[in-house]
Specification:
There is one protein chain. With 415 residues, the protein is mainly β. The chain has a single domain (28-92, 106-413), classed as YVTN repeat-like/Quinoprotein amine dehydrogenase (Methylamine Dehydrogenase, Chain H). The protein has one helix and 35 strands. The strands form eight sheets. Strands 24, 25, 26, 27, 28 and 29 form a six-stranded antiparallel β-sheet that branches. Strands 1, 2, 3, 4 and 35 form a five-stranded antiparallel β-sheet that branches. A hairpin with a 2-residue loop joins β25 (310-318) and β26 (321-322). The chain is globular and about 65 Å long. The two termini are 40 Å apart.
Length: 415
């Protein structure tokens, strides 16, 4: 039987609309974009996330240049219109001295991109933090302020520093936000906020708090939601664990309850805290020190599920060996109303992932979890059971080639 002319027109319009929505015959449409960094060629791999399967397909024109050397962190401004990449640079790991800055053959920078309707990234410009060797960055919940953590402050003290920026709502461009509380000799504000020596990571938490950590301590700062200024919390630092065996590797903040989770790669532990009664203080949760899931080693990062009920930790090693495809894993934990965690009861826990995972992220519809894997240059996808917290392989293959020497990844909803 032949279609009528009107029928053919309607069919053509339906097909055209499906393509415009990113839908395919075997998928459920594009629900988001995933971008993953790689240091081997200083690239950003871009992917469309399929709603029905969670599978990834390459964004047009991907991969994109990172705009610098050694990209390590990627952030998406709330609303999804702008992306920021922290490029660490190279040969800049020597602390400044009183007479000279660190030797920098290639300095670190922050690259800004605008996001197209199909997830393509268009380079805008680069910005520079005030310190040396950027380690990490975080945006506040409004997206109005961006904080870049540098391993070395420019003052030759050996401490680290945070460079704060305001973020333009219309263009996403960054403008330096000086430290109004500390003045230079000439009376002008200093251009950075000093933090502890050898910082590793920084995260904005609930209630206007920003936390930084080094290998064995966490430092809390009060962040003004109106001015973006940072003030060291009156409670000072919180030492974690005991002895030199502690090697903190990540900090993760969770929702309005103010829970904070730390991974310790030295002792294979997870520590649980909550923002205390004093502004941005850390209060230890009962039973706060929890052993990682059996057979795992070297936890390096974590994420809390969107419903706040589960904690997922990525591990680079196992008791059977390190840095092999079978060694890396994802540990799963339940979180109760007090913020306490317990190993999720499932025979498959810990779950397999690619080799050498570095970062993990959840998609906007809260169906899928993805890890970026440094050793094999892949991305691994998992289906999340939002009721039980169990992870399962994607329906049509869970491993996707990405850039070599992958570092972190970020996910945004479709525009």
């Amino acid at each position: 039987m032949k279609f009528s002319k009107i029928g053919r027109i309607v069919s053509a319009l339906v097909a055209s609309a499906s393509l415009g929505l990113g839908m395919t015959a075997c998928g459920g449409g594009t629900i988001g974009y995933l971008w993953a960094l790689g240091t081997y060629y200083n690239q950003i791999s871009g992917f469309l996330i399929d709603d029905f399967t969670g599978n990834l397909t390459a964004i047009p024109q991907s991969p994109f240049s990172s705009g610098g050397t050694n990209p390590v962190t990627i952030l998406v401004k709330p609303g999804g219109r702008f992306v920021y990449v922290i490029n660490q640079g190279s040969n800049d790991t020597v602390a400044p001295t009183a007479t000279a800055n660190a030797s920098q053959s290639v300095a670190g920078n922050i690259s800004e991109y605008s996001v197209g309707g199909d997830g393509t990234l268009t380079f805008q410009q680069t910005f520079t933090s005030q310190g040396v060797h950027p380690m990490w960055a975080t945006l506040d919940s409004t997206g109005n302020f961006l904080y870049v953590l540098d391993k070395y402050a420019p003052d030759a003290t050996g401490n680290g520093s945070i460079t704060a920026f305001t973020v333009a709502a219309d263009t996403g461009r960054l403008a330096l936000l000086p430290n109004a509380a500390i003045k230079n000799a000439n009376g002008t504000p200093t251009a950075y906020f000093s933090v502890s020596a050898s910082p590793i990571m920084t995260k904005v938490g609930s209630g206007g708090c920003l936390y930084t950590m080094n290998a064995n301590s966490v430092y809390a700062y009060v962040q003004s939601s109106t001015t973006g200024q940072l003030t060291l919390a009156t409670t000072g630092s919180q030492s974690i664990g005991n002895g030199s065996a502690v090697q903190l590797s990540s900090i993760n903040t969770s929702g309005s309850a103010g829970f904070i989770y730390l991974t310790d790669s030295g002792q294979n532990q997870i520590y649980s805290f909550q923002a205390g009664g004093t502004a941005c203080s850390l209060a230890q949760i009962n039973g706060s020190q929890t052993a990682n899931v059996a057979t795992t080693l070297q936890p390096v990062n974590s994420i809390v599920s969107s419903n706040g009920h589960f904690l997922y930790v990525i591990n680079q090693g196992s008791t059977g060996g390190t840095q092999s495809p079978t060694a890396s894993s994802i540990s799963a934990f339940t979180i109760n109303s007090l913020g306490q965690i317990a190993t999720l009861s499932d025979s498959s826990n810990p779950y397999s992932t690619g080799s050498g995972p570095v970062c993990l992220a959840q998609d906007p519809s809260n169906q899928y979890l993805y890890t970026s894997n440094n050793t094999d240059g892949t991305i691994t996808g998992k289906i999340i059971d939002q009721n039980r917290g169990v992870l399962a392989p994607l329906q049509r293959g869970s491993t996707f080639p990405s850039t070599m020497k992958s570092t972190c990844l970020a996910i945004s909803g479709s525009l």
